[in-house]
Structure formats: C-alpha cells, structure tokens
Amino acid sequence: MLLRTRLSTLAAGVVACCATATAVLPAQAFAAPAAVTAAPALTAAAPTTTPTPTPTPTDPNAPAAPTAPTAGATAGSEEPAAPAAPLPPALIGERLMGGPATTAATAATAAPVAPKSLAPQALSGSEAAAAAAQACTPADFAARNGADLVAFIKSSTPECIRGLYSSGGADPGIFRQSRMLSVAAAFKDLAAGYTGDNSTGIQQLALYLQVGYYIQFYYPDAAGPYTGELTTAVRAALDAFFAGARWHDVTEGNGIVLRDVVWLTDSANVQAGYLGVYKRILDDYNNSYNAVPKMVGAVNSVLQYPLWRGNSNQDFVRAVAADPSLAVSLADFAINHKDLIGGPNEVLDTNAGNDLARMAGSGPAVEALVKPLVRKVLDAAPLLTPAAPLYVHTAVQAAYYNSGQCSYYDICNLPAKLTSVVLPHQLVCDNRTIQAQALSAEELATVCASLRNQDAFFHGVVKDNGPIPNQYAQNVTFGIFANKTDYTTYSWAIFGNDTDNGGQTVMDATDPNKLAATVMYQKTWNNNDPARVWNLNHEYTHYLDSIYDLKGNYRTQMSVPDIWWVEGLAEYVSHSYRGATDTDAMAQAAKHTYKLSTLFQSTPGNSDSTRVYPWGYLATRYMVEKHPADVQAMLARFRVGDYPGGYAVYNSLGTSYDADFDAWLDACAGGACYNPGPTALFDTSVNGATVSVNDRSVQTGSGRITAWHWTFGDGTSSDERNPSHTYAAAGSYTVALTTTDDTGRISTTPATVTVTAAPVVLPACTEQRADAMGRNCSRGGRAATAGNLDYLYVYLPAGTTTLKVTTSGGTGTAHLYYNADTWASPKAFTASSTGTGTTQSLTVTNPTAGYRYLSLYAVTDFSGVTVSTQF
After folding, report:
1. Strands, E, within 398-497: which ranges?
2. pTM for this one?
C-alpha cells in the first residue's frame, strides 16, 4: 500500500501531531545583583590592523545538540496520499502506535496493536563511522563463546547488535541458551555496579538478550529451546540493575541504557516482576525530563513495551489484579500530563491512555478495577478540546479491547459518535455524502458543485466508456476537517486512514461491502481549492480513477510501475480543472532531473515525493497532451485488469520519447505550463524575526494582476504588493500570497519561512560609562567602520547561571564576540555569533563572577545597532 508520506514518519506510526510546543522548563534562579565597584582596565590593546574574523573551533568531542522526540511526526506531509484500502481495527492500532519493526516478541500470541514509538535518535557522525568500520556480521558472533563472546558484545556498537534482528536466524547457534546464559551472567555482574551510563557496555548486553528472545520466538529452530534457567538468570540480572541507585538518574547516559533494560523486561516476558519499577518511572516523570530526550525515550519504553504487551501475559494480569496501583499511576499520568498534547512528547500521554484502556480488557478481575480509571481519563479529555487526542486514543483501544463495556464508556459505535460530534455539517450531493466540521451551507454547496463539474472534466481527459464492471464503491463519503490538527486527531478513528499527509482516499472497489471515503482538511489561506479544502480535487480524481480506469484494488493497481500515472493524473486533473499552475512542477522541469523512460519505472520504493508528484504531473501531462493514443492503449489494458499489458504499452517505448520530453521540459519551464490568468510567485528573505517578500507573480493571457493579499501564518495579513512582517515569536510560518486579476481570477501560492526570536526590548543601561552593560538592559546606537571594533564590558555577580548577549537593529554586518578574561576580538574570544547582518545572539552558561568582555566587529560599516545583556 503506497501512502503519500515520508518513510521516517511511517516508521513512527500513523497519527502525527502537527503542532509543536517548547518544553516547559523550570525557571532559572538568578542571584541578586551586586554593585559594580570599579571599571575594568584595558588589559589588551585594540587591534591596530584589520583582524580576520575566526570562527570558534569545533570540538569533535562536544555532544550534539539534543533532538526532541516527536509525537509520531512533526507536521507531516501536506501532500495527499495515494488511495488505499481501509485499515482494519487491529492494523489501525498497529500503524497508529507501532514500535520499531524489530520489536521483540513475547512467548504469548503477538498482539494486534502496540503503543506508538518516539522517533528514533539519530547516530552521531562518530557513532555512524564506528558502526560502519566495525566487523558486524552474524558470523562475527557465531565464532565466539563465553567470555570471548561477552567481550565482543561489549566492544560492539549498539547499532551493530540491533542489526542482528535482521539476521533471521541465518547463523544457527548465535542465540543458543548457553550463549544467552553467559551474556545474562555478564549483565548481572555489570548491573551490580551500574555507573549510570553505558561506559561498561551494559546496553549492548541488554540488546543482545533482547535480540535473542526475538530470534527464538520467530526462528525457534535457529535458537533452540529456552528454559526456566535462562528466565531465572535474566531476572537475576534485572533485579541487580534495579536494586542500584543510578538507574533513575535523569541523564542522557542513563536514559540510553534504561530504555533497553526496560525493553528487556518485556522481551523476557517477565513484566509481572517489575510493576514497581514501571510505576516509579511513571510517577517520577515531570516536565524537566523534556530537556533530556533519552530519558523521555526511557519513559516511553515502559509505555510502549511491557505495559502494552504485558496484558497478554497472565502473570502480569494477575499481578495487576492483585495490586492495581500501576493502573492508578497510568491514569494519573495521562490526566496530569495533558500539557504534553500538541508538543513533541505527546506520545507519552496518549500511550498512557492506550495502555490503560487495553489493561481494562485483559480479564474480568482487572476490568472491574481499571474501567473506572478509563472512564475518568475519557471524562478528563473532552472532544473538540486540546486534550481530545487522549480521548480518541483511549476510546479506540477501549472499543477494541474492552468492547463489552462500550455503554459504560459511552463509546458504542465510536466512529459514528465521533462523526456526529466532529463532522456535524452534512450534504448529500448525488452519490457523494459530504461530512464537514466547519463548512457553511454555502461552502458545502460550493464543494458539491466543484465535484459535480469535475466529473465531465475527468472523463474528457481519460475518455472512458463508463464504470468498470464489478468495481463497486459507487458511493463515496467526503470527510472534511477544519484544520490539520483535527484531521490528525480524529480522521484515523473514523475512516481508518493514515493521516501523515494532506488527504487520502480510502477504498477497495472490489468489495461490495466496503464504503469509499476520501478525507482531507481546510486551510485558512488556501484560496486555490473550493471552500479552502486542501487537495479536494486531487483526492476525488483518485476515486474516479479507481472506478473508471483501474480495475481491482490498490494492491493490484500498483502491481506494475504506474505510480507516475496514478499520482500524476490526480495532480494533472486537479490543477488543470481548477485552472491552477503547478509551480512546483515548472520548477522541477527546469532541472531536467529525470528522463521520461526513467519516470515510467517509478515505484513507491525508488521514488521520493518530488519524483512522484511534480514529476508525475509532468510525465502525465506530456503523455496526455502529446501522445494520447499511447495513454488510451495503456488504459484499455488497465480497465480489464491487465496491468502487465498496460505496463508493456509504455515500457516498450523505451527511450524513444526522451529527447522530445526533454525539449518539452524547456518549454514548460519557460512558460508553456502556466495556466491562463494569474500565477502567484514570490521570493522571501528573513532577518531575525522579520520576513520581507518580493512579488514576482505572472499573468498569462489577457488581463492584469490588480490585487495582492498576503497572510503570514500568525493571524496577520497585508494587501501591499511587497510588505515586510515581524513575528512575535520564533518558529516556522506559512506565508501565502493570493493574487487577483481584473477578471476576478485568483491564484494562491504558499511558502514556509523560519524566523528567530523577535528582539527583546530592554530598558537602557544606567551605568555611567557608555561601554558598560548591565543586568537585563540594552545600549543602542552602536556603530563602527569596517575592520574596527566596538568594545563593551559587563560585570557578572556571583551566582549568575546564564549570560545572554544579543544584538539587533541598524544596518551593516556586525559579528559579536565574548571573552571571559580579556577584551574580546575576532582573535581573542570564547564565544561568538557571526551571522550575516546585525542580528546576533550568544549564551554563556555558568560564568564565574567578575568583569566579562564583549565586542562588535565591523565586517562592514555598521550603525544603529542595539546590544542587550540578560542575566
């Protein structure tokens, strides 16, 4: 099944929260200011020659900046997804909350769903190099036993050990019980003196045991039987680890190890013995962890593995029934951490709801204790509020695993309930039922009219002879959400679609009992689509194509390399029908990246989104407009289900059209692919928090552009032709330009801009000397000619934890330098900010008390610059 999503996002799961939020951190404690007793003496003379700015040397041993885990995705793709069959309930959960593909199995029946994984942490450059250089094949392990094997495992990289998941038991004996016992004993020895990090290689030992259980479950002949002796040995090792004091350190080093040790409790199927450990990890979590991504991953490991699959282990179920305090901790965690929703760690909160709801369905004894807690969580997260993702996740799992209590939870026929609340506005439009969250009656009519009129346009392009016999799904439902956030929150639970995209058509036209649905959302700035419904006509083309052109279900339709047509037609029809120029395709045409014969071989496996969509559009437009007979010959075979025959039509062309296609691309990029009327085009430039835009829109054919309307993604707008805008907060925003010509035709084009924080307006410094800075104050009007320095200093009292220095405003380019001991310059500094322009910022942590030195170096003449110090 091809989905129009990024592969990294698919690996993390289906639902992608599209908003991010800065982690809430404890406020810094600042010491009381101390009086400045004397001005600093000039301890270094100003340079007499123009110095060459020198960047701060990079420390190869410095840790990489932490990457915040994502809640299944960042914003996710805004492109539509290819049509797909509806996901069954079990697979919805699997895609929604699935962990890595190498998830360790328990001895119980594999669960149909699994909690959602945080995004994996990337290897640093040194780690990747080490992994690549190290001998790391199954044979390297097969040749070793006992202490030799243990030493090799500890010296291997974690990625090397994880690579053994994919060995498939190809080297019998690697994970025989005798070897596992040696590793478990070594794990226990290291656990007794656990240092709070992986300096001893303990993580690799835990990983090796994880993989062993996985191989033994899926390839039992390769690993051989495991007995209670191994379980006892692994439990002894785990007990030694959790008996120590360092396993709950809130550090990156401990988080890396703790995640895999928690995972091992699940791999070994001994979850029942560690309820207290899981409870402590959940109870100890607070928002300070958000600054320590590996510890966030360790917390999620509890939710993702043992608290999910433990419910299929009767020992775990009996333990929970005997002591339900773990369930109380889960409910409290879900309710108390709703502030995570909408941020990068949302998955922690929704996974707590997932686990609790599944726990309620693990048996009558547990159900009686846990179901009031599930109801408590549902009541704490109302629909159509920011907490709704917690409700939806919890309700979906309760409906699946504890369906007998659906009346108690008020979730019987959950999709219908969600539809009635979230999509209350409906219109029957012939064979189409439009269900919308926020469309007015007028907008519903606009959508209906657009769809009706698109039918004739589509048939004019493909020249079909009517519906394909035995292609069912003659009726289709449109689910239209008000925005991306609500789409990702609710759509998967109602329609069974993936949501890391800008819309998807869900259907299996071969099954008379399956309903077709096409799902999407509105964008406030999107004036190109009817009623601002993003991808409305693209997705409807997929539906029509599956009824009139492509016999069979999607798997059959994609059995040959025809993605260029499937997605290219949807792009071509959508743009041409609406009279919109595909500016992305025109930009790609100028690059000549692909030959037509190469595009004919495009598959989901060899194509990124650029090759699939803009280049699919170009290939389809060229073939439809230049070689319609070939298109009809191809479709004649597709319409009877002969996909190899249809593929043969265009594959047999070989490279015969390549030269003409290449020339056609030049014409397209040169203007032939503009649709009549206006095409909104513009450039952007960013300086700090300010974006400036430059209109370069094009009018094709008669008429002229008479109006420009800009939206900046933060609720503000402008009708100037070339405005600038300053944002109140750092972040990424969508700038969109809508141009209108004198006949009323419009065109809208978006672009994403990323801005830094707006300059903080601080009061003027009150120190008598003009080069003296102070606490939380600024000095304006700084200036210097090219090659010279403007010197300043600041006195830091004892107890200062952070000094932040920023510059802003004025003209020219000024680099900012800091030195703790002497006058700062490009040749004498310990921190610097050397971007283009006058917006600079540097932060010094834990400086010692005393005078500290600053300078602005004039790369070019600068003037009117404001310098601010905060501590």
Report:
1. 425-429, 432-436, 476-481
2. 0.75
